[in-house]
Amino acid sequence: MENQQGDINKKEIVISIRDLYKSFGDNHVLRGINLDVHKRENVVVLGRSGSGKSVLIKIVCGLLQPDRGSVNVLGKEVELLDDTELRELRLKVGFSFQNSALYESMSVRENLAFPLVRNSKNMTQEEVTRAIEKVLADVGLSQAIDQMPSELSGGQRKRIGIARTLILNPEIMLYDEPTAGLDPLTSIEINKLINLVREKFNTTSIIITHDLTCAKNTGDQVAMMLDGKFLKQGTFEELFNTEDERIKNFYNYNFINQK
After folding, report:
1. Tens digit of each residue's pLDDT (9 = 90 or more) over 153-179
2. pLDDT tens-digit series, residues 194-205
3. Domain ranges of the chain
4. Exposed e or buried b for every residue in 97-114, given b needs 16+ CB within 10 A?
């Protein structure tokens, strides 16, 4: 498939998902998912709320176990890793939660220092401070270093959440609904930041969303999920060049019915 980014190495697969199934009781969430994500590629998974998108990326980073199938991340079969190996892998996989997951009792500085102190015990205080200042500059929020999360706007919270993930220099970023709850202009800023993160940090990303503007502006490859399966995969244009009413209705709801 032709890709927007000519320097993406289509031969190097960073995430490989095969025949993935996951159920919660009688709720069959994933029903045979297959997906390859190449190095430095942004892959968007589209779908309605409750379609299994978030369950998919939780399995990718080992927060959930699949019922069947395999997930290979950076050459490791995730479901076969022991606790120590899984912790080591998670240091290379950044998870940007939908609600930003900031500690409300900690300042921005303390929120960003927390993963460094926990995972890089040999760092000096000066090195921690430099790392915090750099990552805040990268996300455009240097001035927020001593603010509390309650003092931040929704878009600023998203940026700080992303910064806290980036501070460990992950190879992979998993974004869960990065533009959810944001106004259109702030959403555009977050989309630009996702692309900037890829350029600055050479990350490979899976972006979970139901926001077509986000999908169009960030995704090299887009996969449409419905009823636990991928209906179609391709570029944004390829995906929506279809007569499948299920896909057309999703497009119309986002770009026509919401005007």
Report:
1. 999 999 999 999 999 999 999 999 999
2. 999 999 999 999
3. 104-169
4. bbebebeeeebbbbbbbe
